[in-house]
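Continuing the batch. This is chain 6 of the set; chains 1 through 5 are on the previous pages. Same settings as before, nothing changed between runs. Recording input and output for traceability.
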Amino acid sequence: MTGKLSAKDLDAALGVIRAASTADGSHPFELPVIEELTKLVPADQTGYFEYRMWADPYLPATTRDVHLVKEPGAELDWHSDEICSLLSEWPLHDSHHALSTTALRFSDAIPNRRQRLRNAWYATVMRKHGVEHEMKLWLPSPPGVVRGFFFVRYAGRRDFDERHREVLTVLRPHLEAIRERWERRHRPPGLTDREAEIVHLLRDGLTNQEIADRLVISTGTVRTHLENMFGKLGVHSRTAAVTRAFEP
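Output for chain 6:
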């Protein structure tokens, strides 16, 4: 797997792992990690994203537990009518590739430039903001959650190459392990994995029925988890549970 990677590539990859392993901020991957990634895969903008995807995958999620850390660059208004109407035309939309185990480039989905010019997302969104090339790497995540990294290059730059794809794919299991360790360190104390998941959904304002639908469990099971959670946190309401779970 590492046949195409140079010693410089491997050193840069280790730099990413070191930066990610030693960071303990409010996001799973802080800006120093993004900066190390950009040394490994040069890009005009690089970032980490994490959000909950609702029933309609083409509507952007806006929850309080979104993690977004990125270098400065072109900004999109994800709630504009134009962006929302074109999301289904985006070849690298998370709904298509969130389970991918390798990094993917925009050009992997549409290799022919003439075809790219006919793609509404490329012609209307990417070119409007000066973006010519894009690559994404997704991390494993629970159902309904999307986690990953994005890399973009502006007009006039070369596309990402196979070496970039390979080194990110090699890094993926290490980044996954680092994300899991961050989750364990920041999980509300004393709660099980399921209880922690439910208290995050409470914080998002979901009802018992919505939580049951999201987790594919019964509302009775949700109530049981809530009762256990209330007992552990020493509270008697959903609002108090969220406050207690996420207080410093």
